[in-house]
Amino acid sequence: MNSPEEIKNKIEQIETEMNSADFWSDKDKAQASVRELQNLKDALEGVGKYDKGGAVMTIFSGAGGDDAEDFTRMLLEMYMKYFENNNFHPHIVSQNENNHGGYRSITLEIDGKNVYGKLKNESGVHRLVRISPFGAKGIRQTSFCMVEVTPVFEKAGEMNIPPDDIRVETSRSSGPGGQNVNKRETAVRVVHIPTNLAVHVETERSQAQNKEKALAMLEAKLYKLEDDERKAKEKGMYVSKSTANEWGSQIRSYVLHPYKMVKDHRTNVETSQVDKVLNGELDEFIEAEKNL
Fold it and tell me: What are the residue ranges of helices labelled H in the chain?
């Protein structure tokens, strides 16, 4: 039960049942219905509140070495073209680039209308199969990247995280801001100790600004984790707090050799027009994801 319309219909159904004369005749069942109603209302509030706003996307390279870091670049370019096509406005929050144009990780904040609603189900492991440009000629290589998409929280404080659950680390910024910025430890990494979730921000001009943005982004990660767990529970499934960035956990495969195909393993949407997909034509996949 994911769509706002389905949630509204279920809310109406429970509220109708609550108005019946014998609703409280089975106390345990009635209390369970009341709890379900509150959870549904909370879910509906989250959909109206965050889906319409911006998103934060992080792409991490996984198994595959140089090929995985190059795959991160390919995914970044694919999404940047999709953003351009949809009038979304991305800017870099942090990046860890290698010496041949690939990325170990890169984080973007994307502004626009309905950004999180469209991108949230892009989260997961993406798999690439191709002839490696980095190894011996003719060797086929499989590599993996993790895409994480969270909503934009304008400021910290919405999740009420206990201070003892947070660890703050500082370092020199490698981002823009001039020599004075780079000489001081303005970059901030915030870690949520119970889950080991972490956020690194270095693009703001001061340590305080980077810390505030990092805390807000961390809260958004926790919101996404809780939302995923809620949805899995509704479907009778288990969701791990960490997904292996490797074989067997992928949501989508991009095969460039020995044939050409992009396939989403959740919706079964597939196409042989790989070049169009890598050029940002993702609408068919993203539309199908609405039913997840």
Answer: 4-18, 27-50, 65-85, 115-119, 179-183, 207-234, 274-278, 283-289
CA distance 16 to 6: 15
Tell me the C-alpha to C-alpha distance, in Å, between residue 119 and each of 109, 124, 196. 12, 11, 24
Contact between 285 and 271 (Cβ < 8 Å): no
pLDDT in tens, 150-198: 999 888 877 888 999 999 999 887 654 444 445 577 899 999 999 999 9
- Per-residue tokens: 152: 């934009």
Range of the domain at 63: 55-154+236-289
- pTM higher than 0.85 for the full model? no
Residues 77, 122 within the same domain: yes
Beta-carbon contacts of residue 22 (< 8 Å; ≥ 6 apart):
none
Query: Do 281 and 179 have their domain in common?
Result: no
